[in-house]
Write a structure and sequence with these properties.
There is one protein chain. By secondary structure, the protein is an alpha+beta fold. The chain folds into two domains: 53 residues, no CATH class; 47 residues, no CATH class. It contains two helices and four strands. Strands 1-2 form a two-stranded antiparallel ribbon. The longest helix is centred in the C-terminal third of the chain and has 17 residues.
Length: 104
């Protein structure tokens, strides 16, 4: 049997990051959708997003989402056409984006 380690339970949502604020947002029918600045381009058909609240802003990993999706679709295509396709390791270029949540 595999072991599972739970390192934390919580919320990171567009309507709050803990039970009290999420409950309050739900009672007040707040949806958390905004016009998301990175989507305000002619080639992006969707202009809104539910961006997670984060106070302090959380350290995150930035990566090329297009390359990630293309790699995932490529792997899926391989699996669909060749049931015995061997596992492949793909590394997507990425970088850590330190934010206020990181202790210095």
């Amino acid at each position: 049997m595999r072991k599972v380690y739970i390192t934390g339970v919580g919320f990171i949502t567009s309507i709050g990051n803990e039970a009290v604020s999420v409950s309050e947002s739900l009672r007040e029918l707040r949806h958390g959708m905004i016009q998301y600045p990175p989507f305000q381009k002619a080639d992006v058909p969707v202009k809104v997003a539910a961006v997670p609240c984060s106070v302090p802003p959380l350290t995150t990993v930035d990566f090329d989402r297009r390359e990630f999706v293309e790699s995932a679709l490529d792997l899926l295509g391989d699996r669909m056409t060749t049931k015995d396709a061997p596992p492949r390791r793909i590394v997507i270029p990425h970088r850590i984006v330190p934010r206020a949540s990181t202790a210095r």
